[in-house]
């Protein structure tokens, strides 16, 4: 009798073992160990997500912490990369006063390769706008993932064009459970400390007073992490739809090609006042499709003429 479930879940739940391939480094996810399923060809990576000196927790506490990670790995949603397992080990780590034993937890998860940034660069090279139906596929995919996260009180914390992926096998836009593989709130703190303009462009206005300050966003109750994520996604959409070109008023320029509903959605995302900006649950109340009575860009639009007399200044 055939097992029930979608093929992806069946593969992920019934692999026999993981075969180690190599150690790799990813700019977005750090140091990783690359594995492949056996007997399947699907690739996974593992990442160290927790390292605690053994003397700071007893065996029961270690097992309880591992259990929490294993439970978190069970969270599944099609637009979120699957995590399939977590494992622990004890190892010796050099320190100030010699070597000490540490308790470590690794998480195994799918390896996404094609980022939205790379996908947009392909379009930029051909000077073609993204067709509006594809834009809504992107929005709905990310929205479903983020709505799921918010319902589980999980912020993302690192939304950029380089942390949204296109799964060419399943034709889905997908994201990672960034909190699981990056540590709770760690991404917000990392944002605060960065001076990289490519990252700072995604920061919501309410976070900027805390950049390079001693105050942590973790201790700042007025910061709503879900609204911070919404703002970042609005900037992602602007970058993708303008193909990274810098405009004084990008919304006015994009209004020539896209529907009113799409412009309204982006405007709501980049609302500078967090009290007026919706979170993911609130955004679900907006129309997530073009207006029926409007002519929209439903095929690739050659835009070379719009850029011929412009410099190649970008805001990537």
Order of helices and strands: HEEEHEEHHEEHHHHHHHH
Q: Estimate the strand proportion.
A: 15-25%
Mean pLDDT: 80
The largest β sheet comes out as:
5 strands, antiparallel
**Structural class of the secondary structure composition?**
alpha+beta
- DSSP strand count: 7
How do the strands line up in the largest sheet? Answer: 1-2-3-5-4
Distance between the termini: 52 Å
Annotation field: number of helices = 12
Spans of at least 5 consecutive residues whose pLDDT stays below 50 are 295-309, 312-316
Organism: Paramecium pentaurelia
InterPro entries: Prot_kinase_dom
Domain Protein kinase: 18-289
Protein name: Protein kinase domain-containing protein
Output the keywords.
316 residues; alpha+beta; five-stranded antiparallel β-sheet; 12 helices; 7 strands; disordered C terminus; protein kinase activity; Prot_kinase_dom; Protein kinase domain-containing protein; ATP binding
